[in-house]
Amino acid sequence: MDLVRFDGVTTVLILVIFFGVMLYIVRTIAKKQEDADAYMTAGNSVGFGISAGSMTATWIWASSMYASATSGYLYGISGPIHYGLWGALMILFIYPFGRRIRSIAPKAHTLAEVLYVRHGRSSQLMLAVSNVVGSVISLTSNLIAGGVLIALLTPLGFTHGVVAIAVGLLVYTVWSGFRASVLTDFIQVVAMLGVVIVLIPALFFLAGFPEAFTTGAANLTPEQSNFFSSEAFLNQGAPYIAAVLAYAIGNQTIAQRLFAVREDLIRKTFVTATLGYGGTVIGMGMFGVLALYLGMEPLDGDPNNLIPQLAATYLPTALLIGFFVLIIGSLCSTGDSDLSALSSIAMADIYGQNIAGKEKADPRVMLLIGRLTMVAATAAALVLASMRLDILDLLVFVGALWGALVFPVIASFYWEKVTNAAFTTSVVAALALFIPVRFELVDLVGPLAYAVDVLAILGVGVIAGLMAFGFFGLRTGRIVGVVAAVVVTPFAFGAVHSYAVLSASLIAYSVSTLICFAMSVNSGRTFDFSVIRQRTGNFDEKEALEPREDPLPDP
Fold this sequence. Notes:
Blueprint: H1 8-29, H2 36-41, H3 48-59, H4 62-75, H5 79-93, H6 95-104, H7 111-118, H8 121-153, H9 158-173, H10 178-206, H11 211-215, H12 230-250, H13 252-260, H14 266-294, H15 306-314, H16 317-355, H17 363-385, H18 391-414, H19 420-438, H20 446-472, H21 474-492, H22 500-520, H23 530-535, H24 541-545
Pfam family, one: SSF
Main location: membrane
Protein name: Na+/proline symporter
């Protein structure tokens, strides 16, 4: 099936114009001499418009759109809901934790930097390494999405597309770092939302809907046509609830925006991102549902091809150009965030805290390290993108992997008894059990299967309890956690071990929680959280002495 709609010249022209505009925007805020702290967090005082747009754009990424469409195609009408709704609610649920973290570390650059003060080097590096792995995989999945798009719609190949996107991202991000990311994010999200508002209704009618709902109903299985499908919830919804909560807590791209936005605007920023992400991603996920009703088979059997395949089949050229820009913008909005996150980890956590030490860190060296990190990360993502892994699998895997960190990280910011040994031991143990269950390296039969079920049920309680705790406090969190575990027990015991992704994700939560709690509750350790404010902050001497007006415009 030939989907090529643009010739080579048109493709290159669109890419040059898009990245040229991004570069021009970045040049308007560039300073002759950048400082390290602005490169990482833009002065900790970004306004509402820019921060809300950036948070929204960072979550609305091309991989998320593709994965939502894949969910719609595999699980039917409830698939995009299970992908987009839970993802949106997780943004909202992490707001109270973000407010707490920012209150005790108002000038920090990374969560790992705060953990260095809270626990020490091993906990810091554990979180930093997990962030590096996650951001590289995130960047990889976005390059894959861009390569697929360009390979399908243009004469250029997958490799050409991946390289073009990677180079474009690097060129406009490498000089100003996070400041470039947040400003271009705002421009990109405004453009994306405008295109989506036009694109989804247009495709709906051009593809023959609503009549196709009747003519194509036979293409759906009973589970796919059921809005309350248990298969969709157990295979997509439940694992994604666990994955996205972990993604929000463990992801440096989110933490960076948390530390950058003005402290009094955190709530407004998170609520706006919740609404923007949910509406856009659920809407784009319906592409997969439409393809299912139309009986469309993914090109080359690859579900990553669904969105561009549907667009190329039904959209006229003018709208297809808008679609092309939409996907490029969405992948760039997260790709530049990943580069900025990786650079801040290298600058603050690796060099600033562990090599030079905070007092001796040279801001000029930090900037050089940050820029070199972006180059190295881009090269690594290019290599991984050549493998063309499944985007949905990548996202769920990373989120589940971070599940091992959620309770130890959150507890460390609230409970003075948590120790470094409890943090590291609980995370390592959770990962040791997560991996064999997730990749089905052992046969879950007999007592082992029941043990997995019990741990998974406890994981449900942990997730529900943490969500309630953030908004309503410890007592309510305990009650909700216990009730949630009790309610799911009749349905989960004896069955949940059959769902490898879900059970592994839940085990990561429960095991890390049980061990962290058991090792901390009688530790006798106390910690003064005010120390974190004193020992985290600006690396640049001038920034430390003279508060700087943030140059980013706030629409």
